[in-house]
Write a structure and sequence with these properties.
The protein is of the alpha/beta class. Bound molecules: malonyl-coenzyme A and adenosine monophosphate.
């Protein structure tokens, strides 16, 4: 058994090997105070795994999951790993049209969704010929009462399966959809090697130690909350105080019992806005980590002044996991994303493809065990996004200083990051352009005090069309996850263009820069 385990590159084998010897220790604690021991986590995962196997799922089959955050949702992720399935998490805010695309593209064998989406999810499963569908509620006790085809209820009847299905390092563990500049989402294929290498690196780089407790208030359908946060905590055999969503007051109440917190910049802005947030709140914390979006220098300094803590900023992507991090013990330099993580090569190239000198700005590229092998069924994208010598083009623009600190100064990809969520303008523009009366549109990100950037739409009406901004919002509401919806619509006569006829979004960003200030 031991030699079998050693050869098994399944991430779950690695995580399980680090669970505490005393399995009665808490793995998760909900905001309500209810705790789940490592024994419960392991047994539930094993029962879920057994159930997955009875559905005829074989290694490599996809399991799509669109549920709210809960301990059971985490067990489901771990069971997908244990059973060798490929986990496909979907943001719980995604709407029917968005999910339709993912199910069609990834062809999952099983779909698990929120009970409230029963009507349209059932229809989509029929459309895509997906036989195995279940619901998983945020609070599974309520779900059982409703008598639905509950994942948890069905799976917990099944005997635990102890075997961890053997996977090679390059086998897929997960597919994460990330929107694209063409408006069509791409499935980033993430391997067991990608996840294990990054988890081990972060666990050691951030100095996880016995007794650490993570306050986990991020969603678990993206890299930050699912991989970065959960993997480091599980590798450490730690307890996670598991809040179903971020609420600044609830976080402040829980922080005194935690030692590590990970969040997006919006969460730090919201903590600082709370009068009750103080040095005492953070007395037990040894590490605050920020990422997924730029942390403003003013937030970094305000946090330092309020709490005495220098937030550790790191930088990553869905496709690559974490790439750089400020050091745990060395200088945490506000406004930078720190140093390339051990074993990861980062370089900056100019437009001609030549290496930039220290401090010179260019396109950031990355290579290492953390980098995805490619996009799901998109060979043409793989050619575009990788260099001949195997570097992945991040689409971020930055520089590396003489002392190796990396700074992100912008993006070459047309992307808005709002509260840590990525919004690709093209996806919204395609929908806006379909609205009767719209001649053309440009979607931009504008500075926003809470979300960092907020989505705004600039629209040119067709001549003689009668259109007001509320018509625009009504037309697209329900077609996109709410966080992608423009927070402001501007109706204009025309869009600024350069000599080549390309819309000058920079001009628009300048024109409307003060909208949310
Ligand atoms: C919610 N809303 C947003 C939003 N989040 N609008 C814009 N941007 C966002 N990020 C809108 C909702 O649609 C809703 O609109 C209203 O705000 C209230 O919704 P809510 O659910 O109550 O929001 P709230 O709880 O306040 O959420 C804010 C947040 C959340 C910051 C806590 O967005 C969040 O958890 N962000 C983290 C994202 C994340 O994990 N990113 C990691 C990606 S991985 P209405 O109109 O319905 O009222 C990655 C790689 C890496 O990037 O490096 O980590
Ligand atoms: P995602 O596709 O959601 O994984 O988002 C990845 C993108 O988030 C990166 O390409 C960056 O543009 C951005 N990002 C992540 N972390 C940081 C950070 N610390 N500073 C600036 N941008 C960041």
């Amino acid at each position: 058994m031991d030699s079998y385990k050693k050869m098994n590159a399944n991430l779950y084998a690695l995580l399980q090997s680090r669970f505490p010897g005393d399995r009665s220790l808490a793995a998760l604690e909900k905001a309500s105070g209810k705790t789940y021991s490592y024994a419960t986590l392991e047994e539930s995962t094993a029962r879920y795994t057994g159930f997955i196997r009875t559905l005829g799922v074989v290694a490599g089959d996809r399991i799509a999951v669109q549920v709210e955050k809960s301990p059971e949702a985490l067990f489901l992720y771990l069971a997908c790993l244990q059973s060798g399935a490929v986990y496909l998490p979907l943001n719980s805010a995604y709407q029917e049209g968005e999910i339709d695309y993912f199910l069609g593209d990834a062809t999952p064998k099983v779909v698990i969704y929120q009970p409230k989406n029963e009507m349209w999810m059932g229809t989509l499963c029929d459309k895509h010929g997906i036989k195995h569908r279940f619901t998983l509620a945020e609070d599974n006790e309520t779900e059982n009462e409703a008598g639905r085809s509950s994942w948890h209820e069905n799976a917990m009847k099944h005997p635990p399966m102890l075997e961890i299905v053997r996977r090679g390092p390059d086998d897929l563990a997960s597919i994460l959809y990330t929107s694209g500049t063409t408006g069509r989402s791409k499935g980033a294929m993430i391997t067991h090697r990608n996840l294990s290498s990054n988890a081990l690196t972060l666990h050691s780089y951030w100095g996880f130690k016995p007794g650490d407790v993570l306050l986990h208030a991020l969603p678990i359908f993206h890299v930050h909350g699912l991989f970065v946060a959960c993997h480091t905590a599980l590798l450490n055999g730690s307890k996670m105080i598991f809040h179903s969503k971020f609420d600044a007051k609830a976080a402040i109440a829980a922080l005194p019992r935690a030692t590590v917190f990970m969040g997006v910049p919006t969460m730090y802005v919201r903590l600082l806005a709370e009068p009750a947030f103080s040095t005492q709140t953070c007395a037990n914390i040894r590490l605050f980590v920020s990422g997924s979006a730029p942390l403003l220098a003013e937030t970094f300094h305000a946090f330092l002044a309020c709490t005495g803590h220098r937030i550790l900023e790191r930088y990553g992507m869905t496709e690559t996991g974490m790439i750089t991090s400020n050091p745990l013990d060395g200088e945490r330099r506000g406004g930078t994303v720190g140093l390339a993580l051990p074993g990861i090569a980062v370089r900056v190239l100019d437009d001609a493809g030549k290496n930039c000198a220290p401090g010179e700005i260019g396109g950031l590229q990355v290579k290492g065990d953390n980098v995805l092998p490619g996009y799901w069924q998109m060979p043409e994208k793989n050619k575009e996004e990788f260099t001949a010598d195997g570097y992945f083009k991040t689409g971020d623009v930055g520089k590396i200083d003489a002392d190796d600190y990396v700074t992100i100064v912008g993006r070459s990809k047309d992307l808005v990051i709002s509260g840590g969520y990525n919004v690709y303008p093209k996806e919204i523009e395609l929908l806006l352009d379909e609205i009767p009366g719209v001649a053309e549109s440009a979607v931009i990100g504008l500075p926003h005090p809470d979300f960092g950037e907020a989505v705004a739409a600039v629209i040119v009406k067709k001549p003689s069309a009668i259109l007001v901004d509320s018509d625009v919002m009504t037309a697209i509401k329900g077609k996109l996850a709410a966080f992608k919806l423009p927070k402001r619509v501007f109706l204009v006569e025309d869009l600024p263009r350069n000599a080549m006829g390309k819309v000058q979004k920079n001009e628009l960003r300048k024109r409307y820069a003060d909208t949310f200030k």
